[in-house]
Amino acid sequence: MSHNVESTAFRSALEVIRAVEPRVADAIGAELADQRESLKLIASENYASPATLLAMGNWFSDKYAEGTVGRRFYAGCQNVDTVEALAAEHAKELFGAAHAYVQPHSGIDANLVAFWAILADRVESPALKKAQVRQVNDLTEADWFALRRELGNQRMLGMSLDAGGHLTHGFRPNISGKMFDQRSYGTDPATGLIDYDRVAEAAREFKPLILVAGYSAYPRKVNFRVMREIADSVGATFMVDMAHFAGLVAGKVFTGDFDPVPHAHIVTTTTHKSLRGPRGGMVLCGPELADQVDRGCPMVLGGPLPHVMAAKAVALAEARRPDFADYAQRIVDNARALADGLLRRGATLVTGGTDNHLVLIDVSGYGLTGRQAEQALLDSGIVTNRNAVPQDPNGAWYTSGIRIGTPALTTRGLGTAEMDATAELMHTVLTQTSAGTGPDGAPSKAKYVLDPATAESVGKQAADLLTPFPLYPEVELG
Ligand code: DSN
Questions:
Q1: CATH number, span 59-319
Q2: pLDDT tens digits for range 316-343
Q3: Which of 216, 241, 270, 357 has most ligand 1 atoms within 8 Å of its beta carbon, as the pocket-test mutant?
Q4: Domain 324-466 classified CATH 3.50.50.60?
Q5: Would you kindly state where each structural domain of the chain is located, as residue ranges?
Q6: Residue ranges lining ligand 1, Cβ < 6 Å
Q7: Catalytic hit among 36, 279, 320, 345
Q8: Is residue 279 among the annotated active site residues?
Q9: Which candidate, 155, 49, 104, places its Cα nearest to that of 412?
Q10: What is the pTM of this model?
Q11: Is-contact 340 421, C-beta < 8 A?
């Protein structure tokens, strides 16, 4: 039995929880077991360090702390101030940003904070000006009406969802698509790549207040210098959502034109994807937007989560260590090896490959929808998620794509040889699965046929692949 501190910490915590509600303790233990056993290829997931996880489980969770460091709406926030300031300091140093706001609870929240800050900064509104100088009580009904009309009538240009953009970049089912008069740019149908001339043309025609770059399913780098030039040419504020690739920016894999921080007016991110921190969000900006960004809570956000800010401080300190750069480079090397392995075995990849942490497979060539492929892979111990491909005929629910990413497996220590083996396992499942039919015999977009013996054999090989790379080897729950 191990007696290291991590095992002791987690075992003790589970013992305390078990005394109150054993089913919760069991579920936590089961989650670790499941994560240990699965070949996790979800591009947006990772494994935070024990220190990051432990920083979240404490009495900071009990504290209300609306406001910002040193300027709270509640008394007794001196320790919250310490961790919030530390997290912001680490973020500024890591990314070379003038200002960091570490309160957002998620990426969506971070984007809402940024939208508010940009609107407040950019929209010429006498009513808004009055509100900003704290004369809210003096606003007349006509002022409020003008304010709503002025704020609610602004334009955003972002990447379309099926080209790899995110829901919060103006897609209609999300509040961003309802708040803004939105238009999107896609990718070149022949190459799958962003066509910057087309983005510039769309910007010239549409004249957005905000130009958004960033993605959740685009497997290539984005040239943020060029995007900033486009934004400047039409007087737009340039916002980058780097949620997916923040770890690659932190690890200096994306530098120069591909580092969003020097080029964007405002950058948002999550902290739990390639950055490998706790679940949460963050906003980086220059001094011009800092004051509005800091109004995120209570303007847009509920009370800050001090326990998560403590964990952000820990994870960001980890990301400042030299070995994080090595980790970030290995993420990209692994994604390339996975893409190459799939291509060699005949897969069709959107854009023909990758230069970041993710790969998007068009599974229509196997005669499958994304939903069928996702489930068949899951049956075989490989966890992925279905995702639309550009101009997807199957829409966002069934889709024609499978998105995979390497941040999590790279954390476990798997390397390029294991990525090739993973490609082989995926190839086996995708070529051995066929589309099924519904009860009426009609073709189904959800049903599929895969010999259970094949699924079992692949699942066994996937488990064998993971055996030399134990997850949280320092944690033994006994
Ligand atoms: N859910 C995240 C992802 O998987 O990309 C983005 O919101």
A1: 3.40.640.10
A2: 999 999 999 999 999 999 999 999 999 9
A3: 216
A4: no
A5: 59-319, 324-466
A6: 44, 107, 216
A7: 279
A8: yes
A9: 49
A10: 0.96
A11: no
